[in-house]
Description:
Layout: E1 2-6, H1 9-27, E2 34-38, H2 43-54, E3 64-68, E4 70-72, H3 82-94, H4 110-124, E5 136-140, E6 164-168, E7 175-179, H5 181-186, E8 189-194, H6 200-207, H7 217-222, E9 227-232
Parallel strand pairs: 1-9, 2-3, 2-5, 5-8, 8-9
Antiparallel strand pairs: 4-7, 6-7
Helix pairs in contact: 1-2, 2-3
This protein binds 6-phosphogluconic acid.
Amino acid sequence: MNVQIFNTREQLARGFCDFLVHDTRNILQHSKQYSLALSGGSTPINVFRMLAEEYRTRIPWDCIHFYWGDERCVPPDHPESNYGSARVILFDQLHISDDHIHRIKGEAEPEAEAAHYGSLLTQMLPAGNHFPVFDLVMLGMGDDGHTASIFPDRPDLLTSNYNCAVALHPDTGQKRITITGGVILEARAIVILVSGTSKREMLESILQEKEFALRFPAAILGRSPSARWFCDRDASPGKQYA
Ligand code: 6PG
């Protein structure tokens, strides 16, 4: 697995920002648009803030179309909305045009919105072998080994024929809409950001390819040749990994 360990959370965020600079430059040499699926939760917040504050002029923001890997089924102004966080910290600061922001409507009826967003991805993104192709899917990882909103109790979402599905957070019961494993694996690039001591046990088990950990969604998707793990020392104090 392709693993980069950064000494601090700040260096982790910078590692992603620099990756985005290079990847957008590379893709936009032969394409007019760059499609980026954002992850949710707290880890990306540092990244969004750094992009807005320090990468305003280093990335061609008007060529990027923003999507989400998952969304909580809450209104866009709800504190738990993944779109809501990105709107305030990133889009408003960089004056991103609304027609470049393709949010999952957390306030809509979940099954209908999962179908709608799945159709949007087919309509907006190039077709891959079986699923629409993102240029980059940004992911996080929960301490239970979930990623996007593909939780360990829903392995069917790793092999679904649909682009999107409705999932339930196993602890809170909160409904989520998520892209499926097929869409993630079809992406040109995947970056999994893992930060903090709460992730250490799960991350070490996955990166050391412990048998029991191999069934977790983050482990399965993180083994893709397109995947890169960006981790900080709090999450992975151990030795470097190949
Ligand atoms: C979400 C995410 C989810 C997240 C992990 C890690 O909507 O919550 O997409 O997969 O990336 O749960 O969350 P933290 O970054 O908050 O630890």
